[in-house]
Amino acid sequence: DSEYGSSENPLLLSVRSGAAISMPGMMDTVLNLGMNDAVCEGLATKSNNPRFAWDSYRRFLEMFGNVVLEIPRSLFEDEIDDVKYEKGVFEDSDLSVEDLQEVVKRFKGVYKNNNLAFPEDVYEQLSLAIGAVFKGWMGARAVKYREVENIRNLLGTAVNVQAMVFGNMGDTSGTGVCFTRDPNDGKNI
């Protein structure tokens, strides 16, 4: 039904680590992958919720820029804080559709100011995100975590690409994680 890259029936993806041993919070994730201007407009129409679509787009631009292109997160935070100040609001959730469109514009400016281009091609986004998650295996946080937790003899991580499940679509949407076994000792819960 939904199709990756389609502006009429968009499918967004998440790209996550799939390490053999759970390493909570240590491996980077990219959410809302597959967003660009056309897909955002299509998602706004399909969901009948333009605010959700533009909020998802700004979240993606920040996460992709930080995780994949290594743009400091603070540069994005400064931009959204500036918009909130200009609009006289305190919470991201208080930003209107028009405000979020301005945030998206400014986030793209962050890319440009760092001599980077935001990839509108959704397959380029996917390739770059997968590479970044694989690269994260040797990132300082992940290496230190494995050292502290005495996790040895793992060759690396798998990468899971899956359809997005949205926690920000409204009061009736949410996401969560559950385990059927204790992540520490493997015993049934």
Automatic annotation (TrEMBL):
<dbReference type="InterPro" id="IPR002192">
    <property type="entry name" value="PPDK_AMP/ATP-bd"/>
</dbReference>
<dbReference type="GO" id="GO:0050242">
    <property type="term" value="F:pyruvate, phosphate dikinase activity"/>
</dbReference>
<comment type="similarity">
    <text>Belongs to the PEP-utilizing enzyme family.</text>
</comment>
<dbReference type="GO" id="GO:0005524">
    <property type="term" value="F:ATP binding"/>
</dbReference>
<dbReference type="GO" id="GO:0016301">
    <property type="term" value="F:kinase activity"/>
</dbReference>
<dbReference type="InterPro" id="IPR010121">
    <property type="entry name" value="Pyruvate_phosphate_dikinase"/>
</dbReference>
<dbReference type="Pfam" id="PF01326">
    <property type="entry name" value="PPDK_N"/>
</dbReference>
<feature type="domain" description="Pyruvate phosphate dikinase AMP/ATP-binding">
    <location>
        <begin position="9"/>
        <end position="187"/>
    </location>
</feature>
<protein>
    <recommendedName>
        <fullName>Pyruvate phosphate dikinase AMP/ATP-binding domain-containing protein</fullName>
    </recommendedName>
</protein>
